[in-house]
Hints:
By secondary structure, the protein is an alpha/beta fold. The chain is built from ten helices and 13 strands. Helix 2 packs parallel to helix 3 and helix 5 packs across helix 10.
Amino acid sequence: MLVADWITELERFAPPALAEQWDNVGLLIGDRSQSAHRVLTCLTLTPDVAAEAIAVGAELVVTHHPVLFKATQRITADTPEGAMLLALIRNGAAVYSPHTAFDSTWDGINQSIAERLSLCEIEPLVSCTIEERERLESTAEVATGDRRPVGRGRLGRLKTPIALADLADVVGQRLRAGGVQFVGEPTRIVSRVGIACGAAAGFLKDARRLGCDAFITGEARFHDCLEARTSGVGMILPGHYATERPAVEELARRLADRFPECHVTASEVESDPLHWRPL
């Protein structure tokens, strides 16, 4: 296996054409022709995760959140990120990020959340435009002619309507969240649910437009919460980490099943930077 072989598989699963235009997806560090038989997946590449990758001999790190996301003028050991990247390069570890392509792909993060909540009639919250669909279909990654609906976020219906507070409990349990915040009347009955992982309160307007009773995202600003309350859409916030980390573990299992001759694991040292303290 070469790094290029892993990229082919990752781009087949999460085509870069699905990524947002502002995103920085793909191979971010490394040599496509390099051999890679040990792979580590993670949500965010931090110094402790990088140290773990080096310790287990990973030749490829697949991180959901991109490194080098903003314009970078220098990489030196004077900063924690620079020291981390230099250590990975010295140890021959390539870095790949699928980010928002992973969010939106057919079996990606938002789809995973919808299925964990046992939603039915699942579809994109925001469908791809005709131009985006044409761009996606023009890539080699979809040469199979997959016609499943594609787009951002997910929209679905609960099989049995429940109260907003009860749904918040279910979300916390299914996503293994340390805690859950929610906006809205606790006893309000919820049936139609919108989902957008991470920090995606920008999709609240789409959820409201499509008649969602509740909208689930990882985190939101105070004024987004006020907007949800004013507009009458319940909003559930289980945390950024909780909405995305489970799918990173699923990705490791998917890659391990696809290439059983290789060693693929999700980071074991990664953790939510937020501590949830019960009152």
